[in-house]
Amino acid sequence: YSAQERMGEPARAVRALPDAETSVRSGGGSRAAIALVVLIALAFAVAVYIGFRSPYPQPATRRAEPLRTTVVPLAPRGVVPGGSPEQLYRAEPVAGFRTGAAGINYPAVERTQNFSDSQITAALATVKDYLVESSLNPDVLTGSVRRPVEHLLDPDQRPQFERSLSDPADDGSRAATGWLVRFDPEQVELADPRIRVQGTLRYEEEAPGVLDVLSDHTFTYALRPADGPHRDDDASLFTVRRELHFRFDR
């Protein structure tokens, strides 16, 4: 599957990362919000801005931007081939993909002018956590749970998140698939929970005190009809591309 990706100018939904001396795993209940721009090539392309909780101090006056989306529905060009998950995963290009979170790898980390190694590592860890929970968690994918994604969001955005999942609409602000990857459990189910992943993470200090983390990953799911009885060869592959742009401010 492919999509003509759409992305608008990123909006700020950011909060301060720690000073250079702060440990990556330091505790506390405060949070840092970051801007996230998500483009998903699933049956749509989407640009979304969300915030995250993080255990670092932030100015109390900053508020996360609401999610905004643009959805472009797509359809396959021909018949989707079927088979067993093992057979389908052996075909190119998926054969070169890694399994699950192992396909989401950090780049080599070197401090920038205004961000320490630990701050950059913390930002990358937040990005990976979001990717894992919103793209790989089988319970999230089938719609049975939402908390693993919700707890990463800024509290200001949680009401919008809840509305998007309980009453989704393609109106630019309530697309459930703007927050996470989700399949209709009445139509399909995972034929293999070992999702294949390939992509990259990179970062740069875009401006003094502004760290961008860019994520570009392709997720390949083996799905089969939810109605039984099931056969060993009734699976087909469904591919999602997610390009995310996270922005961290000091």
UniProtKB/TrEMBL annotation:
Claim: Transmembrane helix is one of the keywords in the record: yes
TM regions (residue ranges): 32-52
Protein name in the entry: Uncharacterized protein
Keywords, comma-separated and alphabetical: Membrane, Transmembrane, Transmembrane helix
